[in-house]
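Lab notes, practical 5.
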Amino acid sequence: MKIIQLFNSSLVSGPENLILRNLSASSWDWELWNLEETRRGEADSNPLALECRRLGIRYRGFSVSSRFDRQAIAKLRAALDEASPSLVHAHDVKASSYLNWSGYLGAPRVSTHHGIRGRPDFKTRLLEKYYRLWVLRNFDCVLSVSREDQGVLSRGLGSKARLLRNGIPFPSAEELRRFQEQREPLRSAWAARAKWGSRSLSKFWVGFVGRLSAEKNPFFALDIATQSDINLVFIGDGILRASLEEEIRVRGLGSRVACLGYEPGMNEKLSALDVVLSVSDAEGLPLNLLEAAGQSTPFLAKAVGGIPEISDTPALSETLLDANDLPLVFAARLSQWNKYSVRRQQLGAKLRERVVAEFSDVAWRAQLEAIYKELGVSVC
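Output from the prediction step:
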């Protein structure tokens, strides 16, 4: 009863982490297949392949040399025919498009759309439009991670468009204490990598955790740092990293702003930060904010996509700002939280209470299992 989770990724970001963490904790018979774009490196250096190897997850890669690689599509079809899975679940645009183009109909097909808005360039947005109009209609079920995205998808897909909000495992109280004990050692290690002095350890630490790509808006975060006295660490990698590092140098912010790159196990290190910052122009329902909240680390975010669903109580409204607010408004909120640390800690505690109750991995797996069962596939 094999289930294939199909990706197109050279990174381990939100969607990949969601599947790796939630399904590796299950007894389901599944494996991960990945469309490996050769322009982004070989499998031996592909973070997703390496992470699957570390976790003992069965992994299979397919080399893809272009946006539409006929040879790769044919290889994917042949592999599906040979594997004869019970269900194929594709994630986002390219993986779902390749599954559709393969013409494989031997099992139910599910697609998860991890965020509709904010595609970074014209070609990708064009592919996205084609995908929504002509690809997703051929799937048996299409999942979205936020109510906003479900509303958009349901206009063309009707009842096929389903909501499955992200859910993750949260640390126990004992694990949380252990994470917090690593707060100072982690800051010391990060400060050393950033070549900051020891005086930086006592400052207010803000983390931008995620891909360094256009829709994530890292330069907006840099503008915030320019207008506030904070340590800002960019934790993640992406196409904008080199230009971001150059801008940090040009602005003379190297003593308190740094790009640290991909950080393995970052989901256990967020309590080392005072605040996690999210300034994306578009989002689905970001795991890094759920992870931060689960460690009682408050976030400050633009109210876009599914993010308001996390802070959907009056007591947590302070964690959100309008998408059109200027960097100075964000800087002022961070300054306020720096000054009133007790208030910030109270927000962190309320966020943890909220996400543990509403966004658990147990609830996510139960909902996905029910959806698969409706399609005639039992995971047990």
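Observations recorded by the TA: The chain has 15 helices and 13 strands. Residues 3-168+360-374 form a domain with the Rossmann fold fold (CATH 3.40.50.2000).
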